[in-house]
Specification:
Largest sheet: 10 strands, mixed
Distance between the termini: 6 Å
Shape: globular
Number of strands: 13
Order of helices and strands: EHEEEHEEEHEEEEEHE
Strand order of the largest sheet: 4-3-2-1-5-8-10-11-12-13
Number of helices: 4
Helix content: 10-25%
Structural class: alpha/beta
Strand content: 25-35%
Length: about 210
């Protein structure tokens, strides 16, 4: 479902994990320029074993390819693109999202992490659309979409759309969540039972993926 967010000519940053998988489903009739904050523009698909180059990795340390016309550059240039609002969209993973679009995705208190990564810069870029892809519920069945985040924040009121395995929400500034789409077999009642906050329902909500 996340791959439907891509439009022809977009410059997009994909977070590690679930978001980067969306690149496998880009419509071949459009051109999308994928950026990695460690300094790549024009990333291609994951390499076959014989194509692996140890010097070509994304921000998640995964081997990648670079398409013809792609380029590599320093981290300061990369973050200049991000902070300078040169990206059209970023797709990130999420641990929690609030009803008003607050995002937590960089740390669980008490857990060892390698670093906060570039998510804080990505969500602070005011002209870049922020889409979060994540499971609707945590491993214990609890909601990840809440009235208020309980984990440390990555950004405040920064998320535009939430795509989960159950549904798609839009974050409406000043109002909260609007249920736009359902995954096949899911019902509005099921979404209400598995979501930790109230939400409105679009008049044309339907099963779309």
């Amino acid at each position: 479902r996340a791959a439907r967010e891509f439009k022809d000519g977009m410059y997009v940053n994909l977070g590690i994990g679930m978001p980067v998988l969306a690149s496998n489903y880009i419509d071949p009739s459009i051109t999308v320029h994928l950026q990695s904050e460690n300094g790549i523009l024009g990333m291609g698909p994951f390499p076959r074993p014989e194509e692996v180059d140890a010097d070509l990795v994304n921000a998640g340390k995964e081997s990648v390819t670079v398409l013809p016309g792609g380029s590599c550059f320093s981290s300061d240039v990369s973050f200049g693109m991000i902070r300078g609002n040169r990206l059209d969209m970023t797709i990130l993973g999420g641990m929690q999202v609030s009803q008003f679009g607050d995002l937590s995705n960089w740390v669980v208190p008490g857990k060892i992490i390698k670093g906060m990564g570039g998510a804080m810069d990505l969500v602070a870029a005011t002209n870049s659309r922020v889409v979060v892809t994540m499971t609707h519920n945590d491993k214990n069945g609890g909601p990840k979409i809440l009235k208020e985040n309980t984990l440390p924040l990555t950004g405040v009121k920064c998320v535009d759309r939430i795509i989960t395995d159950k549904c798609v929400f839009d974050v409406i500034p000043g109002k909260g969540l609007l249920l736009r789409e359902l995954s096949h077999g899911k019902t509005v009642e099921e979404i209400r039972a598995s979501t930790g906050c109230e939400f409105d329902i679009a008049s044309d909500v339907a099963e779309t993926y």
